[in-house]
Amino acid sequence: MTPTRTFIIRRTFVYPMALVIVLTAVLLVVCLVQGQAMAKVIILAGLIMPLVVIFVETAFRRVVVDQEGVTAFRPFRQRRVLFSDVTELDSVRVRSRVFMTLSAGPDVFLIISNSYQDFPALVEGLIAAVPEGCVTEETQQLAKQPPLRHADVFTVWFAVVALIYVLIAQFR
What we know:
By secondary structure, this protein is of the alpha+beta class. Helix content is 49%, strand content 23%.
């Protein structure tokens, strides 16, 4: 009997993403207070909206693996695939990005990326739980050494540093 496990998006991505939103909002306020060009204010206001959407989408996304199946939770929606219905566990690797597809028929599937914390345990748990013969050769090879993705974390931290630099420049 395997316990229920919950996998969330890596917090090393989510926390700096929140910091980017806060810094962008501070920059917007500073631009308004300093009477900066309206185009700059509009661009910053327009930038905050998609950042908030991306943040909410990633911060509240999770995958729950229990004895019977996998449930992917996203804001305002969820999808469940039962292990007994799985016909294939496949994976696609594009550089350091991995997408695993859990298929349970022509119209029922679940795509899970390696953006989740403890991705190796997630892969192992899925392989152990699906019916025998459903795991593709690529996925079995992936399970031996699952790649971890760090580029997105680097990009968000780069944005944090860039925004801090811009904020410092605003006060000079």
